[in-house]
């Protein structure tokens, strides 16, 4: 199954979509990594994929198109129609989920963090070193003390007490 945002055939991972009724959507790792700072070249397929039947995909497409500084993205955003509920979801600023970094700064989906301690990764056979950046985090919805992120190509759960927001 292709990625619903970029139409690539890469393996899909679940990414949380904040603020709405549906908790997550399956997208490729490249799209997940670029949710915080999207690059126009990767999302060139959005004008066709933004019409997906899944409202969560439409919401992500809207949010990405809003962040892109390209003429084609502005044109696509002008064409994108979202019903009232979907538009409210797409424009929703995520509420404070209780996820906070080691300094007490609120964390949100897509934030970039840095590890402040060497962390042994159970089952993966490596140690995530202090200073390692983790881009485009996801929040563990039922536990405000945990986030998910990709370190050395592995998707891992990280305790929020061991990260600081960039």
Q: Would you write up a description of this structure?
A:
This protein is of the alpha+beta class. The protein has 5 helices and 10 strands. Strand 7 and strand 8 form a beta hairpin. The radius of gyration is 16 Å and the shape is globular.
Question: What is the fold's blueprint, element by element?
Answer:
Elements: E1 12-16, E2 24-28, H1 29-33, H2 46-49, H3 55-67, H4 71-79, H5 84-91, E3 113-115, E4 119-121, E5 126-128, E6 133-134, E7 138-139, E8 146-151, E9 154-159, E10 163-165
Helix pairs in contact: 3-5
What helical percentage do the residues reach? 10-25%
The assembly state of the depicted protein chains is single chain
If helices are DSSP runs of H or I spanning 4 or more residues, what is the number of helices? 5
The portion of residues forming beta strands comes to 15-25%
Characterize the biggest β-sheet.
3 strands, antiparallel
| Radius of gyration of CA atoms, rounded to a whole number | 16 Å
Q: What value does the average pLDDT take?
A: 89
Order of helices and strands: EEHHHHHEEEEEEEE
The rough form would be described as globular
How many beta-strand runs?
Answer: 10
What structural class do the secondary elements suggest? alpha+beta
Cα separation of the termini:
34 Å
What's the domain count?
Answer: 2
Task: Point out poorly predicted stretches.
Answer: none
How are the strands ordered across the major sheet?
6-3-10
Pick out its properties.
alpha+beta, SH3 type barrels, 23% strand, 5 helices, 2 domains, Alkylphosphonate utilization protein, three-stranded antiparallel sheet, YjdM_C
């Amino acid at each position: 199954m292709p990625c619903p945002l970029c139409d690539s055939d890469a393996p899909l991972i679940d990414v949380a979509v904040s603020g709405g009724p549906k908790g997550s959507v399956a997208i490729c790792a490249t799209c997940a990594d670029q949710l915080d700072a999207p690059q126009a070249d990767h999302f060139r397929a959005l004008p066709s994929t933004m019409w997906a039947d899944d409202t969560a995909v439409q919401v992500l497409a809207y949010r990405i198109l809003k962040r892109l500084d390209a003429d084609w993205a502005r044109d696509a955003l002008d064409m994108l129609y979202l019903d009232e509920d979907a538009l409210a979801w797409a424009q929703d600023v995520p509420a404070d989920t209780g996820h906070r970094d080691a300094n007490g700064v609120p964390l949100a989906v897509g934030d970039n963090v840095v590890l402040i301690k060497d962390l042994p990764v159970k089952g993966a056979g490596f140690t995530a070193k202090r200073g390692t950046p983790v881009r485009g985090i996801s929040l563990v919805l039922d536990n405000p003390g945990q986030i998910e992120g990709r370190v050395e190509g592995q998707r891992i759960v990280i305790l929020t007490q061991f990260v600081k927001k960039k």
